[in-house]
Every structure is written in C-alpha cells, then in structure tokens.
Automatic annotation (TrEMBL):
One of its GO terms (molecular function) is oxidoreductase activity. InterPro entries: Flavoprotein-like_sf, FMN_Rdtase-like_dom. It comes from Tersicoccus phoenicis. The lineage of its organism: Bacteria, Bacillati, Actinomycetota, Actinomycetes, Micrococcales. This is Flavodoxin. Residues 8-152 form the NADPH-dependent FMN reductase-like domain.
Length: 204
C-alpha cells in the first residue's frame, strides 16, 4: 500500500484574501491533481500572515513564519506558487525564500538538513514572460535548502505580452498547462514516495 503523503502550497500572491488570485487558482489545480495520486493538500496565502523579513527561524514580535514553517516541515511536498511582476517572482515569494534560508542550519539526528526527503515544485502565472527565469530561481533556492526537484517540476501560464487577461479569467485551462500540471503532480508524488521510503544517506 503506497504511503500517504501531504502537500502544502504557499501562495505568494500580492492580494490578501478574499481577493481572487490566479496564483491560488493554479496552486489548487496542482493540489487537485496531487489528490488523484493519494496526496492530501492544503493552502496558505502568505500575504494573509505577518511574515517578518529576515533569515532566522523566528524573527520574534509576533512573526507568523514559525507557524507556517511547522506546516512546511510536516508536508512531504512543498508547492511555491507565485505571480510574475516585471519578469520576476513576487516580493512575497522572495520573503518565503529568505525565510527558508534558515533551514541550512537545521539538521536531523543523521546530520541531514530537515528538508532532505521533501519535494519542491513550483507554479507560475503572469501576463508577461518570466516563467522560466522564475522557476530557475525557485529551483535553485529550494535545492540549496534541501528540497528535491522532480523532473519537469513546474507548471505555468504566461499570457500575451502587454495584455490584460489573467489566468483566472480564462474560460478553460489551456491543454498544454493542464497536461503540465498533471505531469508535475504525478512526478512529485512519485518522487515523494521514493524519498519517504528511503531518504538520503547520513551526512558525513
């Protein structure tokens, strides 16, 4: 019987709830596909929480990151979903990456970063080019702090340049994006199960 798995989507929209968010829509579509592989998912819209700037586990004074981090550490798969602004990931997404930097100093009894054995994937939306650049940034950062990236681990949609249509405004999801989302989910679940069965070796 395959091990049960969990996923957490950190949605890095600049819009607080309850505003509609293309990033959250795509994140939930990824989670829906993960559910077909037996993965239970949840969503955190980061901007709804008082995540303080910094690179420590807890920046104190009501910092909301420790609670979010607890959810990250409890999940087998982390999905980072971000909009594209000026060809870059959002400032909220950058703050998430900066806070994850603290994981470099957190190790388990085998000397491995506590993020070893966890899978990292991405979702990017926007009305301009930038998805490949953003996924490269996200993959490097997630790998640096210990997450493992599956083959074709990003799904994305970029609208026509200088056009006003959002992903959430589309009548239906383009098949290319839908197929990529299915691939991301399937590969992430497969890799997460492999790592759950046998983690990386102990640090020397």
């Amino acid at each position: 019987m395959p091990a049960s798995l969990t996923a957490l989507a950190l949605v890095c929209s600049l819009k607080p709830s309850p505003a509609a968010s293309s990033s959250e829509l795509m994140a939930r579509q990824v989670l829906d596909e993960l559910a077909t592989h037996g993965v239970t998912g949840s969503v955190v819209r980061v901007v709804d929480h008082d995540v303080r700037p910094g690179v420590e586990l807890d920046m104190g004074d009501g910092d909301a990151w420790p609670g979010i981090r607890a959810q990250v550490m409890a999940a087998d798969i982390l999905l980072v979903a971000t909009p594209t602004w000026l060809g870059q990931h959002s400032s909220v997404c950058q703050r998430v990456l900066e806070r994850l930097d603290a994981e470099l100093s957190e190790t388990d009894d085998a000397g491995r970063p506590r993020t070893f054995g966890k899978v990292g994937i991405a979702a990017v939306v926007g009305n301009e080019d930038g998805a490949h650049h953003i996924s490269a940034v996200l993959f490097q950062a997630l790998s640096d702090v210990g997450f493992t990236i599956p083959a074709q681990g990003v799904t994305y949609w970029n609208g026509e340049a200088m056009h006003g249509t959002d992903y959430q405004d589309l009548d239906q999801v383009p098949e290319a994006t839908a197929a990529t989302t299915r691939t991301v989910a399937g590969n992430a679940a497969h890799l997460a199960r492999l790592l759950a069965g046998e983690n990386y070796p102990a640090s020397s």
